[in-house]
Amino acid sequence: MSSINDFVVRFANVNGTGSASANSLFAKSIFRMGVPVSAKNIFPSNIQGLPTWYEVRVSEKGYLGRKNGIDLMVSVNPQSLKKDIASVRPGGYFVYDSTKKLYEEFLRDDINFIGIPLMDICNKEFSDPRQKQLFKNIVYVGALAKLLDISFDEIEKLLSEQFKGKEKLVIPNVKALNLGGDYIAENFEYPLDFRVERRDLVKDWILIDGNAAAGLGAVYGGASVVSWYPITPSTSLVSSFEKYANKLRKDPETGKNNFSVVQSEDELSAIGMAIGANWNGARAFTATSGPGLSLMNEFLGLAYYSEIPVVLADVQRSGPSTGMPTRTQQSDLLMAAYASHGDTKHVLLIPSTPTECFEMMADAFDLAEQLQTPVLFMTDLDLGMNEHMCPPFKWDDSRKYNRGKVLNAEELEAAQDWGRYKDVDGDGIPYRTLPGTHPTKGAYFTRGSSHDEKAAYSEDSDTYVRIMNRLKKKLETAKTLVPGPEFYQENNESEIGVIFFGTSRYAAEEALDIMRADGLKIDAMRLKAFPFCKEVEDFIDAHKQVFVVEQNRDAQMRTLLINELEVNPKKLIRVLNFDGTPITADLIIQPISALNLQSI
Amino acid sequence: MSYIKPKFEHPRAPKNALGYSRKEYEGSLSTLCAGCGHDSISAAIVDACFELSIEPHRVAKLSGIGCSSKTPAYFLNNSHGFNSVHGRMPSVATGANLANRDLVYLGVSGDGDSASIGFGQFAHVIRRNLNMTYIVMNNGCYGLTKGQDSATADHGSVSKAGSVNNFEGIDMCAIAIELGATFVAQSFSGDKNQLIPLIKAALSHSGFSLINVVSPCVTFNNNPGSTKSYDYVREHNEALSSLDFVPVKEEITTEYDEISVKMVEMHDGTFIKLNKLHQGFDPQDKLSIINALQVARQKDEILTGLLYLDTESVELNDLIGTVNKPLNSLTEKELCPGSEVLEKINAGLR
Fold this sequence. Notes:
The complex is a heterodimer of chains A (600) and B (350). Chain A has four domains: 3-195, Pyruvate-ferredoxin oxidoreductase, PFOR, domain III (Pyruvate-ferredoxin Oxidoreductase, domain 3, 3-Layer(aba) Sandwich), CATH 3.40.920.10; 208-390, Thiamin diphosphate (ThDP)-binding fold, Pyr/PP domains (Rossmann fold), CATH 3.40.50; 409-481, no CATH class; 486-599, Rossmann fold, CATH 3.40.50. Helix content of chain A is 39%, strand content 20%. Chain A contains 19 helices and 24 strands. In chain A, the strands form five sheets. In chain A, strands 10, 11, 12, 13, 14, 15, 16 and 22 form an eight-stranded mixed beta sheet that branches. In chain A, α1 packs parallel to α4. The longest helix of chain A has 21 residues, at 461-481. The mean pLDDT of chain A is 96. Chain B has a single domain (22-329), classed as Rossmann fold, CATH 3.40.50.
């Protein structure tokens, strides 16, 4: 069976051996040939010496989700050899370092073995021990390029871009690349029956991970204070902010920073600093993952009740507790939506691509300041740490930041009987003031204890109820400001609907495509935010059965929908994947097809 | 409280350099117990800010949770206040300061808030040398929950109920010096003459200023046997120095004896005139104070006055290279790199 631009390659490496850059070189060269590609790191919570995998899916149709079934395995890790051989689909290929002979008992006769003496080749050609190690990776990239008909020119171009300014390094890299290619040419038939063919399917799209995009989005969104505590998988989001800010946010006269980043002592402090900065009128955010969000609950309650804007990026990983820190999940939803004790509810934004990470992160600051409340940016490890092909970033230069209702000195002078927590406009959003604005007007006391419209301490029941109800009204206003869902049809065409969000979109879109090709029409809706706007309820009302696709055990989004909307829970069918790897289209097709067969 | 503080002010009440009277630095009526040491500290804060002619609205007053943390409501009504969550005032103050480095940050906390639940944040705000004045109203007990021992209760101190504290007490000043605090003072809520100039000096210091004020809890920890009672502190208080705050150098007209008097220039050009009461002790010599604190502990003395001062202090914003302009005043022009730059970034990702 020959196939062009439709296969999965998996690399089995030892972490800390420099394989990551070689592997992404492989993926990017395919992207440069105009062919859609998606890559996923499956890595341990460890720095050196443990098995790590890198999975590249090549798809002419542009399917970017994960797919089961490995067509070609590149094995450079003896620790996982047995498992890696077993994971190749029948008829697939197993590329390995033949310097050492494979154990007979691991061999399978239904797959093809391609042995390349990687170690021998490198020992012969390179003298430096580190080079021997690193170039092993480049040698197998060269071998793969030959086997899969990938352009050597594109790889060489990428290498020269990568080592710009260090041209000396390009020569040995190209040499290693050719060593791999030549070995295949001399010893095997090539290319394989599945391979890459140049296309023009990538257009102007870019390749970037969600954390890098979100960090850049925060720069564009005007964030000037960042406080954070290191935690996988959110760390690179802050690194990205810092990297871009150091380039783009220097004061031209003094060379000093038009931003500040503080690594805090823990997540309690990280969110506290972000809240303090926002209270004082700077756009500030923190980034964390599940364990950090658990710690931040108390402060989120304070920000909700005392109405302080704050942006929190939660790059979700597998819980509970420490869980699987380097595996993906969408399992912080319920905690995020209702974080902290007492009656609270928070605004969530749920991006699904790096482009949306950029846009929603920038928008989050407008939303937080408009609503004077926390906005939680809910991404996950798959989106945050893996590179995704996505439309380029755009920015409208005429855009002004929406700073919300903040009174300046003149407005305070003119204001009649201003009160920090008065609902003047009927939208539940009061007017705030910043410290230092006016000598005698606008000062108030921010507190997490019960307060009246003038911010004075009050334990009066009527006052308490009034303020709590206004906060509820404010979250109603939020429904009109958050992004609405994306629909995949103009008008509903089916009795069956499917709801998904975040990174499940890749697998869900593929599943819909496949099912439509099989004549199964299904309506689809992708959620982008919480609280849910009316269209979400309408969609559920318009369908007999609604599948809710999510990457957690307890169907947390389904619970949120049931809790927030007047819908019949029986209509909402769980489609779940929570093993820590990104969901695949198969997992979505199976339950939907099964139900459809039943109804026939 | 059911009644409001009278607004009346004597027409000939003295005014400060800004033309404000003391009244304009006051707060709401205190709801703390009559005789609480904390109220004396609030009064000292009012006096210090009035005498320093600080514009009240340029002060941000922050606190955590507890009796002490209620006090920002009782001073500086024209300042924005922030009563945060228990033990977390330092982080909120840090964020606020990063957003606008031009305001005066005054944090008020207690021994529960700073030495127990907030000990971590207390330590780290010191390490970062945040430009703020941090006053610990230290009474050795949890007043708001009816008098349990706190982490600063001294070993052997007897509670109102008669139980003896078997645990070591945390010395806030010693730990602050160890962590790199650049201004450390200790005082007693009953000694206004010492406390007011200390607060003024702390507010003039660029960097982290700690004033640990022993402030007896009249309701739960003022009994015989308590080491934080009014009587005990009066008996065991050992002032290392007395201090005069001198707004500008020109005011120093009299000759002084260099052995017993030291003039220390502050970051903002003001001066502290330090009258040394103990020879062999210099507040600019860390070793001498660490030693003095150890000796005092053995002798059951409470050392008060300015304990340590680093006039070379570099505060957080300068340590991390932030612009002088407050970050909260930056606009799209400084913050947003624009579409042209973004297009270049896109090109680099293809």
